[in-house]
Specification:
By secondary structure, this protein is an alpha+beta fold. Helix content is about 15%, strand content about 45%. The protein has three helices and nine strands; from the N terminus they run E-H-E-E-E-E-H-E-E-H-E-E. Strands 1, 2, 3, 4, 5, 6, 7, 8 and 9 form a nine-stranded antiparallel sheet that branches.
Length: about 150
Amino acid sequence: MDANDGFRELDRQDCLRLLATVPVGRIVYTRRALPAVLPVNFSLDREGAVLMRTSASSELVGAIDGALVAFEADAIDVAACSGWSVVVMGAAAVVTDPVEHLRLLRTGPRSWAPASQEVFVRIAPELVTGRDLVGGRSLYGVHFPP
């Protein structure tokens, strides 16, 4: 990022703090050798891991279990021309430990589309990046009227 482009890089702690404020993000993965993006509800777990809860038989689970994925969430204020975006990249894995699964049933996210057999998928936060945009700034820091 150019130091004058209006964006501010966010550190890991700011990224995780912002992620915890929104309920929906997008999982980015490979589907049949092509990029795929799917909106999902989520929560954060220990050490900033992203948790999703979905049907055990979903195509998504088959595509991402054991794969390197990206997860993005953001918040945008259209009126103020501002917002932030955070990306978490890491390995996705279905939670298979029964004790951990029971803990997540109590503390993890609730599925917005419940299924009879659900699993939790955890994305390890290997790389966490983010940026914040202060509205109305140009490449050179010039402010534009709304």
